[in-house]
Amino acid sequence: MKKASDLPIKQYLDVLKAKIFTLKNISWKSPKVIGGSILLLLLMGSGIVYLNSTTSAVYVVINGEKVGLLESQKQAGAIIDEILSEKGAPLGVAAKTHDSITFSSVRIKNSEYTALSKSTLEADISYYVDGAAVKVNNEPIFVLAKAEDGERLLKEFQEYYAKPSEKNQVTSVSFEEEVETEPVEVPLDQALSYEQALEKLKQGNLQKIEYTIQENDSWWLIARKNDMKTKEVLASNPGANEDTILKLGKKITLEKVTPYITVVCEGVRTDIETIPFDVVTKTDSSLSSGQTKVKQAGSDGEKEVQYAYVQKNEKVVTQTVKDEKVLKTAVSQIIEKGPQQVTVAYSRGSGSTVSGVSWPLRGSITSYYGYRHSEFHTGIDIDGDQGDPYTAAAAGKVVSAGWSGNYGYTILIDHGNGVMTRYAHSTKLLVSAGARVTKGQTIGLVGSTGRSTGSHLHFEVIINGDTVNPLNSLR
Ligand SMILES: [Zn+2]
Description:
The protein has helices at residues 8-24, 31-53, 73-88, 118-124, 150-161, 194-203, 219-225, 230-235, and strands spanning 4-5, 54-62, 65-70, 101-109, 128-136, 139-144, 168-175, 179-187, 191-192, 205-212, 251-258, 263-275, 279-283, 292-296, 301-312, 315-328, 333-337, 365-367, 370-372, 375-377, 380-383, 389-391, 396-403, 409-416, 419-426, 428-429, 436-437, 442-445, 456-463, 466-468. It has 475 residues and is an alpha+beta fold. It has five domains: 4-126, no CATH class; 130-203, no CATH class; 205-258, Roll (Membrane-bound Lytic Murein Transglycosylase D, Chain A); 263-337, Resuscitation-promoting factor rpfb (Resuscitation-promoting factor rpfb fold), CATH 2.20.230; 365-472, Glucose Permease (Domain IIA).
């Protein structure tokens, strides 16, 4: 990389030194020596004059081009080493260069010497690093500057999602995709530092999509069409909320994030959950009609539930109850009621649809009503994250709220006129049997309890005891 080339003046001085050395070995008494010494002094004298008015320097030659002067090859080498380490420092490595850098020694007049500045030298060199390409399914996604940190990066990314604790036993962590690192040489400005690389993996791949608003579009429909969540669509349009009116033909931007790598974690998690209390109504003839009295106040119970789960990045995709232990039993609320004098007979609905039912959750439909394979799907599955609140589709009375086999934690609401709605696989129920709910009231949180793959809300509309396609009733 660094090569020295000799110069006539240097040779001249070397010869001079050699002469001094040779002469020293000859006796001073010899007349030849005296004559030689005089000659030598004369030569040295002219040499000193020459040395005082000029200076030795080196040209720094990059790829055959002289870029400037420095005092010596040693000084130039030190500056270049400094530049290489400074350039690579933000990436945690020393930069390298393939440029041919040589030095050509000169003697020039003192007045003509101007030292090459570090910044000029820095700008004249091109840099590279020996990094590691992170490849997902054989596609490189970025290059990590420090090749030996590749494995550590992938491990730390796994640990970002797999968080073992006393309440969370992680049994396996893997990547869904084929992920590998491969040594690769890249220009310095194309490599990422460890921190940048980790951040990039955590943030995922952000794509900006331009979308033109079509007829009948709603924020939610746009989200569904683009396989996004409503809140993500709204977030990419600052200032917009669900009530913001969409103008036909207007272009909006959608910022869609897809993960580069999917970390699959499996394990067993222990949660403490509330057991909602039941409401029991008894008739007491000592009370007058329409009069109610709370005989016993209800109180929620508590239980410890062990879930076997599979998680992909932050999302729980399957969750099954492994074990349940009641820590505190729920106490039913007992309400005494005066005898009913008027029997209210709900008129039975006639059609298969009912109007005025609103979406309990805004999300994409991951499974529709009807046959899927050999099974009949009695509702629709609306995608949601674990813990997303969902609401009552219409006003009514909670018939039941609790565990219901394959449905997991489920709420059944009677809306009158033979219409009921069911909300299954909840992680948490926020209402109890007997409660009156209003349309749009938050009644539970999305989960994946019961027979469920992935957190979602299974929503059913039941008319006169039979399920119907909720999409015919929803608005
Ligand atoms: Zn379902």
